[in-house]
Here is the input.
Amino acid sequence: MILRTLLIGAIACLVTPATADFVESAGGGAVPDPGVLVSETATITRSETINDLSITLNDFDHTWVGDLVGTLTHVNTGTEVTIFNRVDVYGTSGSGDGSNMFGDYTFGDGGDDFWREANSGNSSYVLSPGMYEATDEQGNVNSLQAAFAGESTAGVWRLTIEDADANESGSFGSWQINFSSTIPEPTSLGVVAGLLGLAAIARRRTRFV
Here is the structure.
């Protein structure tokens, strides 16, 4: 009876994998003007299966959001997603939206509409710090979950930011990836195998008594 209970518990661990949230941070830098790719990387050794993720730019300070292009790349798999790409550049004769970013900005599924927020004011407007959905150059939503779910958290992650036009520049203090992931359970298989062996021994002993 005890062995049966232990077996049920161990098997339950296998069919109900644990989940966890963790954050991996990396340094920031200047975003020079114009046309220079700023590339910052984070190397993650923790290996878990991605369920969802978001990316946060901390202390982001840059005028004229319509100049900016940002991408997140998982170097090991080659998966790359555009976070933002020259907001409203196609609707403003190539100059893009003139709003400004000052604060902490997170990009991930379920966030607010980045383009609508940028279009809320003129060149003196500051986008409210908060969480926004990643978007392409035409304002379509880019799902980070759809792109990265199922991949391992481990490997090299690269954030690239470019100021693609003249007259504006900026910087950011740091950046981080916010993971929701599934924790592997490698020991559960061993536990189940061991308990199955004990159960078989117990059955044999009972048979010969």
Notes: The longest strand covers residues 49-62.
